[in-house]
Amino acid sequence: xxxxxxxxxxxxxxxxxxxxxxxxxxxxxxxxxxxxxxxxxxxxxxxxxxxxxxxxxxxxxxxxxxxxxxxxxxxxxxxxxxxxxxxxxxxxxxxxxxxxxxxxxxxxxxxxxxxxxxxxxxxxxxxxxxxxxxxxxxxxxxxxxxxxxxxxxxxxxxxxxxxxxxxxxxxxxxxxxxxxxxxxxxxxxxxxxxxxxxxxx
Length: 201
Fold this sequence. Notes:
The protein is an alpha+beta fold.
Protein backbone atom coordinates (compact mmCIF):
# COMPACT_ATOMS: atom_id res chain seq x y z
CA UNK A 1 0.00 0.00 0.00
CA UNK A 2 2.95 2.34 0.60
CA UNK A 3 4.00 1.95 -3.04
CA UNK A 4 0.42 2.24 -4.30
CA UNK A 5 -0.01 5.54 -2.48
CA UNK A 6 3.38 6.88 -3.60
CA UNK A 7 3.16 5.92 -7.27
CA UNK A 8 -0.54 6.17 -8.18
CA UNK A 9 -3.44 8.56 -7.76
CA UNK A 10 -6.43 7.52 -5.69
CA UNK A 11 -8.27 6.76 -8.91
CA UNK A 12 -5.46 4.52 -10.18
CA UNK A 13 -4.35 2.69 -7.03
CA UNK A 14 -5.64 -0.60 -5.74
CA UNK A 15 -7.15 -0.95 -2.27
CA UNK A 16 -5.70 -3.23 0.40
CA UNK A 17 -8.52 -5.68 -0.27
CA UNK A 18 -7.81 -5.70 -4.02
CA UNK A 19 -4.08 -6.33 -3.50
CA UNK A 20 -4.79 -9.20 -1.10
CA UNK A 21 -7.24 -10.69 -3.60
CA UNK A 22 -4.61 -10.53 -6.38
CA UNK A 23 -2.09 -12.36 -4.21
CA UNK A 24 -4.55 -15.00 -3.01
CA UNK A 25 -5.90 -15.74 -6.50
CA UNK A 26 -2.46 -16.00 -8.15
CA UNK A 27 0.19 -16.47 -5.46
CA UNK A 28 2.87 -17.53 -7.98
CA UNK A 29 2.27 -14.61 -10.35
CA UNK A 30 3.16 -11.66 -8.12
CA UNK A 31 6.53 -10.52 -6.79
CA UNK A 32 8.17 -7.87 -4.67
CA UNK A 33 11.64 -6.58 -3.82
CA UNK A 34 12.63 -5.33 -0.39
CA UNK A 35 15.71 -3.66 1.02
CA UNK A 36 17.95 -6.13 2.83
CA UNK A 37 19.13 -3.35 5.17
CA UNK A 38 15.77 -1.83 6.14
CA UNK A 39 13.03 -4.18 4.95
CA UNK A 40 11.52 -1.27 3.03
CA UNK A 41 9.48 -2.25 -0.01
CA UNK A 42 11.13 -1.13 -3.26
CA UNK A 43 9.10 -2.76 -6.03
CA UNK A 44 5.83 -4.64 -6.41
CA UNK A 45 4.64 -6.53 -9.47
CA UNK A 46 1.16 -7.98 -10.03
CA UNK A 47 0.20 -10.18 -12.98
CA UNK A 48 -2.58 -12.64 -13.78
CA UNK A 49 -3.45 -15.24 -16.41
CA UNK A 50 -5.51 -13.98 -19.31
CA UNK A 51 -6.75 -15.34 -22.62
CA UNK A 52 -4.85 -13.60 -25.41
CA UNK A 53 -8.08 -12.69 -27.18
CA UNK A 54 -9.38 -11.03 -24.02
CA UNK A 55 -6.20 -8.96 -23.64
CA UNK A 56 -6.56 -7.77 -27.23
CA UNK A 57 -10.28 -7.00 -27.24
CA UNK A 58 -10.99 -5.71 -23.71
CA UNK A 59 -12.14 -2.12 -23.70
CA UNK A 60 -10.38 -1.12 -20.47
CA UNK A 61 -7.56 -1.98 -18.09
CA UNK A 62 -10.16 -2.76 -15.44
CA UNK A 63 -11.79 -5.32 -17.70
CA UNK A 64 -8.44 -7.11 -18.07
CA UNK A 65 -7.62 -6.83 -14.36
CA UNK A 66 -10.99 -8.39 -13.47
CA UNK A 67 -11.04 -10.98 -16.28
CA UNK A 68 -11.28 -14.66 -15.43
CA UNK A 69 -11.29 -14.10 -11.67
CA UNK A 70 -11.17 -16.10 -9.54
CA UNK A 71 -10.86 -19.06 -11.95
CA UNK A 72 -8.94 -18.50 -15.23
CA UNK A 73 -10.50 -19.73 -18.47
CA UNK A 74 -8.74 -22.86 -19.86
CA UNK A 75 -7.42 -20.73 -22.73
CA UNK A 76 -5.56 -18.49 -20.26
CA UNK A 77 -2.63 -20.87 -19.85
CA UNK A 78 0.10 -19.21 -21.90
CA UNK A 79 -0.54 -15.46 -21.52
CA UNK A 80 -0.19 -13.06 -18.60
CA UNK A 81 -1.63 -9.59 -18.14
CA UNK A 82 0.60 -7.10 -16.32
CA UNK A 83 -1.76 -5.48 -13.84
CA UNK A 84 0.75 -3.12 -12.26
CA UNK A 85 4.42 -2.44 -11.58
CA UNK A 86 5.20 0.03 -8.79
CA UNK A 87 8.72 0.97 -7.79
CA UNK A 88 10.97 3.54 -6.16
CA UNK A 89 14.21 1.81 -7.22
CA UNK A 90 15.35 0.94 -10.74
CA UNK A 91 17.77 -1.79 -9.61
CA UNK A 92 14.94 -3.44 -7.68
CA UNK A 93 12.84 -3.54 -10.86
CA UNK A 94 15.72 -5.30 -12.64
CA UNK A 95 16.04 -7.75 -9.77
CA UNK A 96 12.35 -8.57 -9.80
CA UNK A 97 12.36 -9.27 -13.53
CA UNK A 98 15.59 -11.32 -13.34
CA UNK A 99 13.74 -13.55 -10.88
CA UNK A 100 10.19 -13.38 -12.20
CA UNK A 101 10.51 -13.90 -15.95
CA UNK A 102 12.36 -17.26 -15.82
CA UNK A 103 9.97 -18.27 -13.03
CA UNK A 104 6.80 -17.72 -15.08
CA UNK A 105 8.41 -19.23 -18.17
CA UNK A 106 9.00 -22.39 -16.11
CA UNK A 107 5.30 -22.32 -15.19
CA UNK A 108 4.45 -22.51 -18.90
CA UNK A 109 3.70 -18.88 -19.78
CA UNK A 110 4.97 -17.56 -23.11
CA UNK A 111 3.82 -13.94 -23.43
CA UNK A 112 2.86 -10.85 -21.46
CA UNK A 113 0.30 -8.18 -22.37
CA UNK A 114 0.31 -4.66 -20.93
CA UNK A 115 -1.75 -1.53 -21.26
CA UNK A 116 0.82 1.21 -21.87
CA UNK A 117 0.17 4.91 -21.28
CA UNK A 118 1.00 7.30 -24.11
CA UNK A 119 2.54 10.31 -22.34
CA UNK A 120 3.47 12.05 -25.59
CA UNK A 121 -0.05 11.92 -26.98
CA UNK A 122 -1.38 15.16 -25.51
CA UNK A 123 1.32 17.32 -27.13
CA UNK A 124 1.16 15.36 -30.40
CA UNK A 125 -2.62 15.68 -30.58
CA UNK A 126 -2.44 19.47 -30.14
CA UNK A 127 -0.11 19.60 -33.14
CA UNK A 128 -2.15 17.06 -35.14
CA UNK A 129 -5.79 17.60 -34.10
CA UNK A 130 -7.36 15.85 -37.07
CA UNK A 131 -5.14 12.76 -37.16
CA UNK A 132 -6.36 9.48 -35.59
CA UNK A 133 -4.60 8.44 -32.40
CA UNK A 134 -3.76 5.08 -33.96
CA UNK A 135 -1.33 6.79 -36.30
CA UNK A 136 0.59 8.17 -33.32
CA UNK A 137 0.61 4.76 -31.60
CA UNK A 138 2.15 3.08 -34.63
CA UNK A 139 4.43 5.99 -35.62
CA UNK A 140 8.17 5.28 -35.71
CA UNK A 141 11.31 7.37 -35.61
CA UNK A 142 14.60 5.66 -36.50
CA UNK A 143 12.78 2.34 -36.28
CA UNK A 144 11.53 2.92 -32.72
CA UNK A 145 8.09 3.97 -31.43
CA UNK A 146 7.53 7.71 -31.38
CA UNK A 147 5.91 7.73 -27.94
CA UNK A 148 8.52 7.73 -25.14
CA UNK A 149 6.73 5.12 -23.03
CA UNK A 150 6.28 2.77 -25.98
CA UNK A 151 9.95 3.32 -26.83
CA UNK A 152 10.90 2.39 -23.26
CA UNK A 153 8.82 -0.79 -23.38
CA UNK A 154 10.26 -1.68 -26.79
CA UNK A 155 13.71 -1.61 -25.20
CA UNK A 156 12.43 -4.00 -22.54
CA UNK A 157 11.33 -6.54 -25.16
CA UNK A 158 7.71 -5.52 -25.79
CA UNK A 159 7.89 -5.47 -29.57
CA UNK A 160 4.22 -5.95 -30.47
CA UNK A 161 1.59 -3.18 -30.50
CA UNK A 162 -1.69 -5.04 -30.80
CA UNK A 163 -4.36 -2.37 -30.20
CA UNK A 164 -5.04 1.30 -29.48
CA UNK A 165 -7.77 1.92 -26.90
CA UNK A 166 -9.57 5.09 -25.82
CA UNK A 167 -10.86 5.50 -22.25
CA UNK A 168 -8.68 2.56 -21.24
CA UNK A 169 -7.56 4.01 -17.90
CA UNK A 170 -7.30 7.50 -16.38
CA UNK A 171 -4.07 9.15 -17.52
CA UNK A 172 -4.05 12.85 -18.29
CA UNK A 173 -1.12 13.12 -20.73
CA UNK A 174 -2.41 10.06 -22.59
CA UNK A 175 -5.86 11.63 -22.90
CA UNK A 176 -7.03 8.39 -21.22
CA UNK A 177 -5.80 6.39 -24.22
CA UNK A 178 -3.50 3.37 -24.10
CA UNK A 179 -1.69 0.99 -26.39
CA UNK A 180 -2.07 -2.69 -25.66
CA UNK A 181 1.39 -4.15 -26.14
CA UNK A 182 2.75 -7.69 -26.17
CA UNK A 183 6.12 -9.21 -25.33
CA UNK A 184 7.36 -12.77 -25.74
CA UNK A 185 8.83 -13.83 -22.40
CA UNK A 186 12.00 -15.02 -24.15
CA UNK A 187 12.43 -11.52 -25.65
CA UNK A 188 11.83 -9.90 -22.26
CA UNK A 189 14.54 -12.11 -20.73
CA UNK A 190 16.97 -11.28 -23.53
CA UNK A 191 16.41 -7.56 -22.92
CA UNK A 192 17.41 -7.80 -19.24
CA UNK A 193 20.74 -6.30 -18.15
CA UNK A 194 23.46 -8.88 -17.71
CA UNK A 195 24.69 -8.19 -14.19
CA UNK A 196 27.54 -10.18 -12.67
CA UNK A 197 25.71 -10.30 -9.34
CA UNK A 198 21.96 -10.02 -10.00
CA UNK A 199 19.68 -8.81 -7.25
CA UNK A 200 17.52 -11.57 -5.76
CA UNK A 201 14.06 -10.35 -4.63
